[in-house]
Amino acid sequence: MNCKLNLITASLLVASAPSMAANFAVGNANTDNLNQEKYECKRCTNTTGYSGSVDISAGYIDSDDVHAANALGTDQEGFVTAVSGDIEYQGEQGYQARIQAHQLGFENSTANISVGQKGLFNVDADYSLITTYQSGDAQSNLYYDDGMMVPGDTYVFELSQQREKVGIGADFNQDFYQGYVRFDTEDKTGYKSSSLVSPSPVNFGQRVDSTTDSFTAGAALTGQNWLTELSYFGSQYKNNTDHLSLPTYYDVYAATPDNQAHQVSLSGQYQLDRTVMSGRYIVGRMIQDDDLIQVAGNPIQNWDGEVDTTDANIRITSMLSNRLRIGGSYDYSNRENNSSVFEFQQYNFDSVSGTFKENVATDVERSTFKVNASYRIASGYRLQAGYDRKDIERTYSDREETNEDSLWAKLSIRAIDNVIIDMKAAHSNRGGSEYQATELTSSEDNSLLRKYYLADRERNEVELRVSHTPLDWLSVDLTGRYAKDDYDDTVIGLTESEDYGYDINLNMQLTKHVSAYGFAGQQWINSAQAGSQSYSSPDWYADIEDEFINLGAGVSYGGLMEDKLTLGADYLFSNSSSDTYVTAEGTSPYGDYFSYNHSASLYANYALNDDMALKLTYRYERYYDTDDAQVTPDQVPGMVTLGELNHNYNAHQIMLNFSYVL
Amino acid sequence: MMNWCRNILASISVILYLCTFNAAAAPWDDMTGDEVSQKLVEKFAEGKYSPKGADSCLMCHQRTEGVADIFKGAHGDLTSKDSPMAGLQCEACHGPQGNHNRGGKEPMIQFGKNSKLDAPTQNTVCQGCHNDPEQMAWHSSTHNLEEIACADCHVVHAAKDPALDKLTVNDTCTSCHTREKADMNKRSAHPMKWDQMTCIDCHSPHGSMSESALNKPTVNDTCYSCHAEKRGPMLWEHAPVTENCVTCHNPHGSVNEGMLNNRAPQLCQQCHADDGHASRVVLQPGMDAFGGGKSCLNCHSQIHGSNHPAGSLLQR
User: Fold this and answer.
1) Which of A371, A547, B233, B284 is deepest in the core (most CB within 10 A)?
2) Could you list the residue range(s) of the whole structural domain that residue A320 is in?
3) Searching chain B, which residue's CA lies closest to the CA of residue A399?
4) Could you tell me which of A246, A247, A243, A265 has the C-alpha nearest to residue A256?
C-alpha cells in the first residue's frame, strides 16, 4: 500500500514538472556564436596510412570424429595452418580500403575486401565458407551415379554440407540520395541424410549440389523528416542434381526443383514532431516451373507453380508527452497460390493403384493489429502494455480461420541505484472457425484431433529480469521465465506444454587487468500429447520432458610481464536431454536421447614488441550424444538405415598464432 | 618562496584531479537525471562552444582512457567531410562546452550506462546524423520502445565497434539476450556459437517492419534466404511448412536434432491421427521403422514438399 501511495505521489510530482523535450541532434545546434577559426586539431591523432594486423596460425589437431570440425573450424587433422587479418588503409582524401580475413585455409572461413571513400561510395567483395558436419560414419550400399542409386558393397561416407558463398556489392551516398546493389552466389555441396521407399524404407546419403544466386538493388531518398526507399530482391535456386532412380524403380525420388523469387519493396518514414509513421508495401512472386517426372497418370510436362505475395504494414508511434508514448501497427501478408491444379495418379507403393489426387494450392492470408502504450509512472518506473490481434485465413485447411488475442504488460523499474528490474506478463487466447477435417487435407484423421498450430490455445507467460551492479567491478543478471500452453479443446494431439527456466550471468572486472565471467542456466520444456490406435478416444499418451543445462566461466589476466603477457581460460558445458514416456497399457520410457559437451580453452598472448605478438591457444572439445532411435543398418527388418550416427569423442587443438601489427 | 612552491604544487594537484576523468563517477553524479537534462538543454540552447574545438577538450581529456581512441574509428576521422571532426568535433556529440572547462563540474552529454540522460535523449545525438533507411523502423522497434541506447551496443571510441564485427556481434546481442545465448549451445542449433552465423543474418537490431525485427518480410522468407530449396512452390505442399517454418522448428536451437520442437514420431503425431499407422503408438524408438532411423521420415522424407507427380504423401 505504501508503495502504491509512493508511486502515485511521485507520479503527481513528476507530472507537475515542466515538460521538456531534449533533442541534441547536431542539426539543432545553436551555432550563432561559433567561431571555428582556431580549430586546429593539434592534439588530434592522424590515423591515415595502414593499420591493423596480419595473423598466421599453425597448429596441430587431434580428433577421431569429423563432428569436432564444427567447433574447431576444420576437418583437417594433424598439422594445420590458417591466415587471418584485418588491415585498413586510410587515405588523406577520405579514401579507404580494408581487408579482413578469418581462418583462411580452414573449412569455416571468411574474407572481405572493401574500398571506397567515406560517406560517398563503397565497393566490397565477400567470401565465406561454412561447413557443417553431421557424421563421418554413415553407412550405405547405394552408390550415386548420375542420378542412379546403384546397389553395391556397404561403404562408409561423410554426411556434411559445405556452403561456399561469394558476393560483390556497392553503395553510394550523395547529399539526399543513396543507392546500393549487391549480388551473391552460393554453392552448396555435400551429402545429407534422406530416405526413399522401394517399397520398404531405405535411408541413403542424398547428394547435394545446388547454386543459389541472389541480387538486390535499391535507392533511397532522405529528407529533413522523411525517408523513402525502393528496392528489388531476386533469388534463383538451381539444383544441379537430378531425380534419383533405383535399377528397379525408375525416378523413385524427385529432385528438389529449381525455383526463383522476386520482391519489389517500397517503404517510407515520416516524422512529425514527436510522432513517427512508417510503412512498407511489398509485392512478390515465387515461381517454380521445373519439368515434372514423366510417369503414367501425369497429365502435364511441367507445372506452372506460382505464388504471388503481398506484404504491407503501417506503424505509428507518438510521444504524447514526456511520460506517455503510444503506438500501433497493422500488418498484412497474403500468400496467394496461383499454381495450376491437376489430377495426378498416385502410387500405392510400387504398383499403380489407379487412384488420382489433385494437388492443393493453398492460400494463406494474415493480418496483425497491435496497439501499445508506455507510461512513465514516476522517475524510474515505466509501465508498458499492449494488445495484439492476429488473424490467419487459409484455404483447404482443417480450420480455415484462426485468430489470437494477446494482452501483455511490462513494468520496468530503474529507481533503485544499480538495479534494473523488468517484469513482464502476457496472456493470449487463440480460437477460430469451426474445426473440421476436409476431404482435401485429412479425410482420415480422427475427429478428436486438433492440430496444434490450428487448435484453440491459451497461453500464459511471465518473465522477471533483474540486473544488479552492487560494485563497480561486479554485475549480476538474473532472468527467470515461465510459459504455459493449454490446448483445452484438444483430445487427440498436443494437449499442453510448459516451458520454464532461468539464467544467471556474472561479470567481474576484478582489477584493471583481471576480468572474469560466469553463467549458468537451465530450461525445462514439458509436453503432453494423446493418440488413439483404436481411432476413437485416446488410448495412449506421451509425456516429453526436455531439459537443458548450460554453464560457463572464464578469466582473463593481463598486464603480466610489463604488460606483455595476457593469460586466459574459457570453459563451457552444455547438456541437452529429452525423455519421452509413452503410456499405453503401462508406461514405457524411451531410451536415451541426450548430448553433452565440454569446451575448454587456455590461451596466452605475448607481445614480442610493439609490432609483433604471439598467441598460444589450446582447445579441448569433449562431445557425446546418443539417440536410441539410431540403429545399425539392418537391425530393423524391412528397413535399411545409415547406421548409428552417435558421437563420443575427445578432440584437442593447439595453435600458435603470430601477429604482425601494422 | 616556500608558499609559492606550495601554491604551484596545489594548483597542479587540482588541475591533475580535475583532468582525471573517471567514467564511473562524473562530477555531476550528485545531480538528478532531470537536473542534468535541464542543464544540458540550457547549454545546448545557449550554444557556447569552445574556442579551439577538440583541442580544448583534449587539453584535459587526452590521457583519459579511451578518449583518444575516437581517432581510430570513423567518428574521429580527420579526412571525412561527414565525420564529427569535420564539424563541431567532440562537441558535436557531447554538446557545447559552456563552463565545463572551469572545473569540469558542469555536465556534458554523456553516453552509456553511466549517463544520467535517458536512452531516447542520448539517441537524439546519434540520430541527428544516422537518419538513413537502416534506421527507418527504429522508432517502432522493440529496442527503441525498451529504451535501449545506441551506446548500449555501439562503441565509437574504438578502432573497431564490436557490434559491427562479425566475430563479436553475437557477444553484443547475447549480453542481453541471454536465452538465445544459451540456445546456441543446444544439441542442434545454427552455427552461432562459433560465429559462423550471426544474429544479424536474420534480425535487424535497429528494427524492421517485419515480425521479430526480421530482415525479410516474413519468417519463411528469412529462412529461404539460406534454404532456398524449400521455397518452392512445390507441387505437393505440406501445409504447415508453407505457412510457417517455426511451426516445427526453433531456429534458436533445440535439444532435438534438426532444431525440431519435438522429435518424430511424436511431433508428427501432434497433427496426424488417421485410421492407420499415424495413430500407432510407438513404444520404443529403435524397434521398428516407425520409431527407428528417421522415424516417419523413413518413408515421408520429402516432408518439406514433393515435386513428384505421385508424391502426394511426400514420399518421393
Assistant:
1) B233
2) 266-361
3) B239
4) A243
pTM to 2 decimal places: 0.92
> How many folded domains does chain A comprise?
1
Sign of CA dihedral A221, A222, A226, A230: positive
Q: Contact, A578 vs A629, CB < 8 A?
A: no
Cβ atoms A503, A464 nearer than 8 A: no
pLDDT per residue over B133-171, tens digit each? 888 999 999 999 999 999 999 999 998 999 999 999 999
Number of domains composing chain B: 1
Q: Does the beta-carbon distance from B266 to A580 stay under 8 Å?
A: yes
Handedness of CA A479, A555, A68, B202 (dihedral sign): positive
Mean pLDDT, chain A cut into blocks of 10 residues (662 residues total): 40 39 88 87 88 96 96 96 95 90 97 92 97 96 90 94 98 92 98 92 95 98 93 97 92 95 97 94 97 91 95 95 94 97 78 74 96 94 97 94 98 92 98 77 77 97 96 95 96 97 96 96 98 93 97 96 96 97 90 96 96 97 96 93 96 97 90
Residue A650 belongs to some domain of the structure: no
Question: Could you report the per-residue pLDDT of A212-271, keeping only the tens digit for each?
Answer: 999 999 999 999 889 999 999 999 999 999 999 999 888 999 999 999 999 999 999 999
B313 within some domain? no
Q: What angle do CA A321, A322, A324 make, to 5 degrees?
A: 60
Residue A279 falls inside a structural domain: yes
Distance in Å, alpha carbon of B4 to nearest chain A alpha carbon: 31
Cα–Cα distance list, A608 to A326, A558, A569, A659, A662 (Å): 58, 15, 21, 10, 14
Put simply, the answer to whether B237 touches A46 (Cβ < 8 Å) is no
Residue A351 forms contact with B (CB below 8 Å): no
For residue B279, the enclosing domain spans: 228-298
